[in-house]
User: Fold this.
Amino acid sequence: MVKIIKLQNNCEIIGSMVEDNNDSVVIDNPFSINYMFTAASDRPIIGLLRYMPFAEERQMSFQKSGIINIANARTSMSNYYDVILDSHLSDIDDHVDNELQGIVDSDFEDENNSDTLQAILEKMNTNDRMH
Assistant:
């Protein structure tokens, strides 16, 4: 069953609940629900972003002490979640992995960038000593 969890930090999470015990709930493929306001509309635009997109695990445990409320998702929201999950999930993961690998390959293997990074770190260490 697709659930929406409201956390104490006001974050709203949507996902399939796979476990509910005394201390925690486990959600499969959680996404955070984001509300974006634009001048073109008097209503917010809703977007789903993968919760902790750099984590390897796809099931996340949420401590009940940090949860305000758990509710069943409306059918329309559950359907939207399913569409995002089915059509975009692997594309998003592949994009994130490729982008991160591209940064590692291009930035950290290039000697000039390495020298620049070293100079920045040395400058930061010098500034820290001055305060």
Summary: The mean pLDDT is 84.
